[in-house]
Amino acid sequence: MSISPLSETTALPGSRPDIRALVVRPVRRLAFWAAIVLPFLHLSLLLSGLESRPTTLAFVALVTLNVVAVYVGSPQALE
């Protein structure tokens, strides 16, 4: 017997919705996919060159964001 994914977020009338189901899970899913997509932006910056300061700062910011996305979206963070 399988459980519908919607059953996790549905609440009984008068009860408080589960904040974990409503906020944390979607944020972790978004972080997971961001961790997959962000390296493609790194590659484009690397191919264009890191000679200018704004490009280098953008690259460092993207790497930092990617590290955060990997941490938040990792399976270990779900437990």
TrEMBL record:
The chain crosses the membrane at residues 30-50, 56-74. Pfam families: DUF8028. It comes from the Archaea. Keywords: Membrane, Transmembrane, Transmembrane helix. This is Uncharacterized protein. The lineage of its organism: Archaea, Methanobacteriati, Methanobacteriota, Stenosarchaea group, Halobacteria.
